[in-house]
Amino acid sequence: MIGGDGINDESNKTAPPPYWFILISYYRWYMRPFSKKFCVGLVIAGIALNVLYWLAAETLHLCTGKFLLPSDFIFDYWKLPSMMIGFVMFLLFEKHHFSSKVVNWIAGSAFGVYLIHYHPVCHELWSTYLPVKNLIRLSHPILNGMACIAGIFLCCLLLDMARHVIFALTIDKHKGAFFDKLYAYAEKRKIMSILKATNTAITNL
Fold first, then answer.
1. Are 135 and 126 in contact (CB under 8 A)?
2. Neighbouring residues of 2: CB distance < 8 A, sequence distance ≥ 6
3. HEC string of 68-121?
4. Of 10, 61, 79, 166, which has fewest CB within 10 angstroms of its CB?
5. Which of 45, 39, 44 is nearest to 89 (CA)?
6. The three-state (H, E, C) secondary structure of the chain, written as one string
7. Mapping DSSP to helix (H, G, I), strand (E, B) and coil, where does residue 183 land?
8. Could you list the residue ranges that cross the membrane (predicted)?
């Protein structure tokens, strides 16, 4: 459905969501639910594909001194192994029902965090001062990467919480008041138009 090379363009941040939407919709409409065992197997298969590809690419680079760039090719978030892991993790967590005020509080800001961290200003800041690709090449790359991601998420979460407070004090303080006034004004204009038309008709008689 999405042709051309747009999906391969690093500047194209809107391409993956349609793929996820199509995948999830097809699964919900046309496929039988995956069992927990099958989901775990798919996660392991996705991780194995990533590891095997990385080992093969690194071995090829060490032996030939070439092909350095292709070693990272498969790790993009929209590539098959990554999407397979992410999709099946979604299905696994969907099977476990629990209630947590903390999780609900964070989940309420999850989409806001996503939008904030991809805003051009914020994206430029964290990609400049916290470049993940450079951090993971240092010692303890996994810990560095996790700390970097957690820091970015926390900062964006605080910004979204500030947005919630501002909205609560302004726009949401009187929910629907503006639209109620707008509707009342429109209705008043409508009634006045009807009365005016009626008076004109009576006058013409």
1. no
2. 15, 18, 19
3. CHHHHHHHCCCCHHHHHHHHHHHHHHHCCCCCCHHHHHHHCCHHHHHHHHCCHH
4. 10
5. 39
6. CCCCCHHHCCCCCCCHHHHHHHHHHHHHHHCCCCCHHHHHHHHHHHHHHHHHHHHHHHHHHHHHCCCCHHHHHHHCCCCHHHHHHHHHHHHHHHCCCCCCHHHHHHHCCHHHHHHHHCCHHHHHHHHHHCCHHHHCCCCCHHHHHHHHHHHHHHHHHHHHHHHHHHHHHCHHHHCCHHHHHHHHHHHHHHHHHHHHHHHHHHHHC
7. helix
8. 38-57, 77-93, 102-121, 141-159
- Residue where the block lists tokens 């501002």: 166
d(CA 66, CA 58): 10
Q: Which residue has the tokens 């993956």?
A: 16
